[in-house]
Give the backbone structure.
Amino acid sequence: MASPAKSPVSIRWDNGELWLLDQTRLPHHVNYEQQVSAEQLFDSIHQLKVRGAPAIGIAAAYGLCVVMRQWLDASLPEFRQQLRVQADFINSSRPTAVNLKWALDRMLALADDYSGSSSAELHKSLVQEAQAIHAQDQALCQAIGEHGLALIPDGAGVMTHCNAGALATGGIGTATAPMYLAHEAGRKFRVFANETRPLLQGSRLTSWELHCAGIDVTLLTDNMTAHTLASGQIQLVIVGTDRVAANGDVANKIGTLGVAIMARHYGIPFYVACPSSTIDLNTPDGKSIPIEQRHADEVRRVGDYQATVNEIAVQNPAFDITPAELVTGIITEKGLIEPPFGEGLSKLFAG
């Protein structure tokens, strides 16, 4: 199951051209933009035209291949030097999502290990590596879904926050992967998607994506979360993540921490779904994760509507940190990891 049949894919690699779905225009406009430069790709990632940690990594890997075409006739040392310069620039587009750096580091490692003498041949190998990253993410999403499937029985109510779906990955999503497989298996369940202010990824993306796939989905405003959790309609929460620290602390879209606190209060399991590439053992805890600060106008405005005056001060962190003690389990392609996470995450990579 590469992607839900009725949902558009977020990334297309077509005859050496990179096309990204502009997710800022969804759900009303399905528009793909060809990426032709490092500056354009930087803007596409920073402006959230492509978003979701796995999708950002895939886009960056392909984008690096596009950018490096102009150095095909350069000497191998110059090609490698420019590859690192361009990778560093692309990596600076968003600081929190670890998959971005992971994918670019993988491309740089391949270049460092290349034993040939042709920049053009190295470029071909980089394209193959980017395609492998994309294909592997599809398989990882499927495996995450299989390991999380048992968590969604018939009659379950599942809450999610932001979009960790097919639009955020190369496959069927991370948090949504168990939902797609449960739907495919014929289970009857209901998803409650938080709208996710300020950019409304839950309403614009998650609810639309699941609706297109025929999954029963109900949209909630963010301030309905506690009420809905208290109502008895929710049996579990599944969210994605942009980075998991070595101790199990989780960085995800702003508002996730509040959902986790409320879920713990009402005794509802809170799960995080991600590929192992999103787990960063080099980051000891959540305090060490850089939190992206975004433009105030994202809060002052709702779409084209100016909700307040420009003189009002605004805080707009893109992410918050959910401490490991609030997480019931982390669903990865290798299985469900339960506390203590420090030990479990170390074993995941040791194995």
